Amino acid sequence: MAGLEDVFAPGKTLPETKTNTLNTEVPKMKIMIGAAIGAIALSACASAADKMHPVSHAHIGHVASGWTDTPKGMGLLPTAFAEAKIAAYHAEVALKKPTNLAWLKAHTWHAVHAVDPKAAPKGGPGLGYGVRKAAIGAAYHIRIAAKSKDSTANIRLHAEHVAVSAHNSLARIDAIVAAGKKIQVARSAGEALPLARKIVLWSKQLTAGSDANGNGKITWVKGEGGLKQAKAHLGYMMQGENIAMMKK
Q1: Residue 14 CA to its chain's centroid (Å)
Q2: Mean of per-residue pLDDT scores for the chain
Q3: How far apart are CA 116 and CA 4, in angstroms?
Q4: pLDDT at 119 over 90
Q5: Where are the domains of the chain?
Q6: Which CATH topology does 55-240 take?
Q7: Phi and psi (nearest 5°) for 76?
Q8: What are the helix and strand counts (H, E) for the chain?
Q9: Is the pLDDT score of 165 beyond 90?
Q10: Which of 49, 65, 76, 43 minimizes the C-alpha distance to 150?
């Protein structure tokens, strides 16, 4: 049998024992457990972050408060309102000189530019974005919000109301553009004036909507609701989601 001096002699190593094995395995287990706990914590943080910044709320924000390509980064619906206001203003101004053909042509065309700059490529008053593009964008993003995985019943309910009201603008814009083009080729103020009056009506309806069924009310339904109704239902949605309301 070897003596103690042989065991601890220079160049000798301790024989592997169960105790030595445990001493090396325990740190490995601690590392593995720590990594698992870290992964769980990261997952929990990610889940919490998703709840704090839902995808649906991001798209609601694009409609209400800010989008990448709008003037000054405004929300799509505020942009539609701003352009609709400019269109209505110039439509009204056109009627101030009902016997002046050049005047009628100039200001009704300004209204056309405000609703759809692509239809009046030479430019004119307005933000250069157009009610059409803004309304289409608002309807698109609010429907994406409704289809998001984190969407709620509240979002899904009001999203359709917002989208339909915004889309109602498109038929009115088509009518304004068509009338504006006819005025541009009119040979007399008498020929242009009735069309100019229709542009005033349609430009007002962009915001206020119209009572299409004659029941004394303007709601979000197809053919009735305008930007005003879209804003109202967006407000109901945002209130239900505890999101800061859209500015007037």
Answers
A1: 71
A2: 84
A3: 98
A4: yes
A5: 4-50, 55-240
A6: A middle domain of Talin 1 (1.20.1420)
A7: -65, -40
A8: 9, 0
A9: yes
A10: 49
